[in-house]
Amino acid sequence: MNSIEKNINELNKLQNLQQRSHWMNELHPLGKLLLSVLYIFIVVSFDKYKVVPLIVMSVYPFFGFIAGELSFKEGIYRMRLILPLVLFVGIFNPFFDKQIVGMIGSVPVTGGVLSMFTVMLKGFYSVLAVYILIATTSIDDICYALRILHLPKVLAIVILLIYRYFGIMAIEADRIMTAYKLRAPHQNGIHYKAWGTLVGQWLLRSMDRAENVYESMLLRGFTGDFRIRKKKVRIADILYPIIWLLAFAFVRYSGFFG
Amino acid sequence: MHMADALVAPAVAGTMYVLSTGAAGVSVKKVREENDPKKIPVMGVMGAFVFATQMLNFTIPGTGSSGHLCGGMMLSAMLGPCAGFLTMIGVLLVQCLLFADGGLLALGCNIWNMAFYGCFVGALLIWKPIMKKGATRAKIILASILGCVLTLQMGAFSVTLETLLSGVTELPFSVFVATMQPIHLAIGLVEGLITAAVLVFVHEARPELLWGIGEGKAKEGKLSFKGTIVALAVAAAICGGAISLFASSFPDGLEWSMEQVAGTSELEAEGGAYETAAGIQETTSLLPDYAFKDSESAVGTSFSGIVGALVVVGVCVGASYAFRFFRKKDKSAT
Fold first, then answer.
1. Nearest by CB: A130 against B28, B104, B305
2. Is the pTM of this model over 0.80?
3. What ipTM does this complex have?
4. What residues contact residue B208 under an 8 Å CB cut-off, 6+ apart?
5. Quick one: A105 and A70 in the same domain?
């Protein structure tokens, strides 16, 4: 499977998750967005040696995946982009911070090892928190939440258009690639002489689709701003983020977990 | 060059959000003043184009490393600095949310490192002065390569500064910079060549669509507006599809730099780590009998604390499953 197919599959899976009828999907997007941002903010604010409270902070992603009926496998798969980077940044620390801060049995533990561990945990948690958000909230709803936070209209429209055009282009690209591979089974990649005709057809179809999407939006009453039905704020929409934020604040500031 | 949330401290992230928001505010104002409804779909298509190209890694010969397109320079040459900057913000936000490429908290840093330099510095200080007296093939190639190299160097330098200021790595500044900059020089050259190829094509097809070139100097276009949009999509298709077949499995520049340094560095630790860890020892002891042996040294954490934390997590995980079970039971009952 090539990278485009993988991205399309990932996109489709996310869209299916976003369209589920689930209580987490029905929560107000503003609350979920703010909760995710504040969770990440609190997680990265921990000192580099504070392993214990960081472990406790894993409760939020665990709850999100279990109660939200999300796949741990998918969440872990999303770490592929940040995992190498976080690992390499963290891996320096044992080389430079060699102060022995304790022993586990006869094995010495250095400050660098602890800080490497916390960097990795912070990386994992932030990716998982964003996954919980995007798996239960559509891009349209996120843009709606951002508009409540006074994100400029033009920026919100551009985000929505990029999202739509990307999907269309990627699907067309994948179909043409498959057709080419079936006709040229022993070639390693597309021959440069075929790029023009191949990509030209791909482009025309993609643009036809993209223009259709944009014209459809205009026909459905798109006048430069997107109309999303105002979401009613229920008690659960307020309680859910507040309870979590209180829990985060307790772990972060009470000192109970060190 | 996308930074993850784990690499930035809240203060650094907040500062970069403020700076990026300021630049976005100016851009929104300028785009509103232009009042060009055609620009919105072009921004959408160009954003999708950059999105497609940023999914790819280009192998840099002889280094074992790879990099991907920044796209800021290309967007600014097509849309101008303000519309280009807003488009890049959209691309970075969607990438972060959909594919976990870059963090939500680090978005301000990523916007600054990739969008601000590419769009504002690239467009106003490099592209515009070179194109002042009209565009030629050679000028476009020069501006593209120069713009990509310089803006990527600035971005890489900012990544180094932001990571070090956040205090997540013990790497010395000089070593970090010395490994980050050269690899991004090579990436910049590759990006410059690809950008030049696309912009030369656009110049030959519809020169009036390139930003910052005198209208009197512009040649008559051979394609319609719609045709040019199609041409841009072709370029997106080439970058997003055909070249992806050759996408590299090597780590990107930042990862490569760190790998190189980690393998050779033997520097001694220094700074306040000892004192910080000693502070942690005093507050971390849920089960003190199981604490580390050497209580005289600076104990960063304790075994007892970790056990306690794991117990708490275990209880919460069990509670989560129970929550789901009872919720389903309630649902089936009703």
1. B104
2. no
3. 0.81
4. B215, B218, B221
5. yes
